């Protein structure tokens, strides 16, 4: 990589900044399945560097990731795009299966520091994801192959999923930028990224906000919206999605109503679980597949029949039809 000359001009500096941002957009935030190309649609966003903060990059990244998860869930899909590092960190934060072990640093051992999930190298400076920088890359939770992972998910219980990862104690260790505009975490609004419109529906995952889950209203996944793509003639997306853009601009007026506090337990016959069992495929392994002894021997909490109401298919539902 060429190094910027010490006596660079402002124009040269901006060129380097745009080149880096383009690399970031194409490899981390909005990568497609090509693996080595960046769509020209992002170039106009980099013309005026002083306007970069006017764009909602986070909502765009989520919309792009959600659409790619929808595409990847089809049976003929072989590749996936989107910000996969975000999904990987999301899974590691919440799901015990396949989660790598975090290694304590030498300084932590010498100082006798108590290690805890949620710590960072420098609290109030580093984002939460930094805690996964020092992991045992050889540790895979004793799981090998797709069949074993499927069985692990089938036998997953409620206690093996972290429903409330962002407790106040953890949020207080994050830099201010990570919890600015907290009210927008619970907005009901469309997430827009050019031709992609995906709804943000936090009312379907209220346990992560500390509320008892209720049966959510019907979620209508628009086939027409999912068929929208960049192929063919150019499209004025601002005109095509004017209604969705208006709803996004007015998002702060449409918040999820606060529900009853979640006390850490949901009864098997709770209306929410009755609804959940009716709409969800709770077992993903074929009935003909036998449980691998390696999985049974390394996991102590094998569920009872009542536990199947808490199966990780909820996680699969979140990942593939999350919002």
Helix content: 25-40%
Mean pLDDT: 79
Global shape: globular
> Helix tally?
12
Strand order, sheet with most strands: 1-2
Biggest pleated sheet: 2 strands, antiparallel
**Multimeric state of these chains?**
single chain
Q: Radius of gyration in whole Å, from Cα?
A: 22 Å
Report low-confidence residues grouped into runs of 5 or more: 293-323
How many strand units?
Answer: 2
Strand content: under 5%
- Structural class of the helix and strand makeup? mainly alpha
Order of helices and strands: HHHHHHEEHHHHHH
Describe the structure.
This protein has 323 residues and is mainly alpha-helical. It has a domain at 100-140. It is 33% helix and 3% strand. It has a two-stranded antiparallel ribbon with strand order 1-2. A hairpin with a 2-residue loop joins strand 1 and strand 2. It is globular and about 65 Å long.
Which keywords apply here?
mainly alpha, single chain, 2 strands, two-stranded antiparallel sheet, 323 residues
List the helices and strands and how they pair.
Elements: H1 10-29, H2 57-72, H3 84-94, H4 106-111, H5 145-154, H6 168-171, E1 189-193, E2 196-200, H7 223-226, H8 237-240, H9 242-249, H10 271-279, H11 293-298, H12 313-321
Antiparallel strand pairs: 1-2
Task: Give a short synopsis of this structure.
This protein has twelve helices and two strands. With 323 residues, it is mainly alpha-helical.
